[in-house]
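ok so i was messing around last nite and threw this chain in just to see what happens. nothing serious, just curious
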Amino acid sequence: MSVARAREARCVPAAKSSWPATRAGRSGPGNLFQATANDLTLRGFRGSSYLHLLSEMQREVAGWLRQGRLRYRETVTEGLHNAPAALAGVLSGATIGKSLVRI
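result:
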């Protein structure tokens, strides 16, 4: 018998808008029965639980950036006058990665 395995890490404030509202009007992950039926592991986390590792992470990630081992994508909007449109893009999900407004 083949068993599917999956793991999801979700930081709720960033991802909450992608959760549908339930019948009771509360938001949360949909169809938890499927998670159980497929032996999925769901684990929430808070960045503040790992503050003791912050300086170590900053040193390690800075090295990865300098070496070109860590790549990232970002959306850059030109001009302060375009800031409202940039915010609308963030809220609608039209942006990729970090969103910046260059002034």
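not much to say yet. The chain is about 35% helix and 15% strand.
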